[in-house]
Amino acid sequence: MNTPARTVFVTGCSTGIGRATALLLAEKGFRVFAGLRGEQQAAELENASKGSLTTILLDVTQEDQIASAVATIQAACPEGLYALVNNAGVALAAATELTTADELRKVLEVNVVAPLRMIQHCLPMLRQTHGRIINVSSMNGTQALPMVGAYSASKHALEAINDTLRVELRPWRIKLSLIRPGQVRTPIFHKSHQQIEERRDKIPPELCPTYSEFYTRAAEFNERGAKSRTSPEDVARVIHRVLKARWPRVHYHVGLDAHGMNLLRYVHPKLVDRVLARVMGLFHPVD
């Protein structure tokens, strides 16, 4: 289906969820513009789609590139944009105390500021179609976990922006949905593994007895994530369902672990803290 009313712009399509989503939507008849950073990945994606989608080189942290990408889509689809899928994101596996301000800024820039910029630039086209916005969050956006403090903070912020925009954009009948995957077997776990190994050697000696155990546990959970039963294609199918739904839900949880973590909101925070501390190898009593 090549009608402008079914044109979808997806970010972060080099690998993982974004790539799977772009391919699935193109297969299902949407006109897909896939934003990604590398020329080689762009060529590979176009090959995989057999030319059924359009790739756009895009670094979501660069406003001039966002403006250029949106202008390209606007020229190709003057009737408007059906949907924006904000998927691009980065993770950071590190103890929060040992996370630098610059590292935090980078995570927030990619995971929070960039999606907002994307929305701002795409809204004129979305207003034309009373379109929809899908923000890919994480279960870390509802429950902050040890060793991913910066990442959790960014996803909490993304959820807040999504919540406010759901109300603010009601006059234009623009629908917003949030995808909350649990662990999904994507290349992000390979990157996290490298981060954990590099940072473990830089723990200050006086903190090593405790934090080294945290990093060991984080590495174990990272390995489990790399073998997760939830695939990028599973998330892509949910995104497709959201785009097809007449009345899409506010939140979508993907994966058994995501549904399990969703139940934590009914558990007393101190009990959750105690469980998480034990999971991280901390058995000291706390008043």
Task: Walk me through this protein's architecture.
The chain has one domain: 3-Layer(aba) Sandwich (Rossmann fold). With 287 residues, the protein is of the alpha/beta class. The protein contains ten helices and seven strands. It has a seven-stranded parallel sheet with strand order 3-2-1-4-5-6-7, with helices on both faces. The radius of gyration is 20 Å and the shape is globular. Strand 1, helix 1 and strand 2 form a beta-alpha-beta unit.
TL;DR?
Belongs to the short-chain dehydrogenases/reductases (SDR) family. The protein has 287 residues and is of the alpha/beta class.
Question: What's the quaternary structure here?
Answer: single chain
CATH fold-level assignment: Rossmann fold
Number of domains: 1
What low-confidence regions span 5 or more consecutive residues with pLDDT below 50? 1-5
The major beta sheet can be summarized as: 7 strands, parallel
CATH top level class name = Alpha Beta
Task: Assign the structural class, choosing from mainly alpha, mainly beta, alpha/beta, alpha+beta, or little secondary structure.
Answer: alpha/beta
Count of helix runs: 10
Report the portion of residues in β strands.
5-15%
Strand order of the largest sheet: 3-2-1-4-5-6-7
The appropriate CATH architecture is 3-Layer(aba) Sandwich
Rg over CA atoms: 20 Å
GO molecular function: diacetyl reductase ((S)-acetoin forming) (NAD+) activity
Family: Belongs to the short-chain dehydrogenases/reductases (SDR) family.
EC number: 1.1.1.304
Protein name: Diacetyl reductase [(S)-acetoin forming]
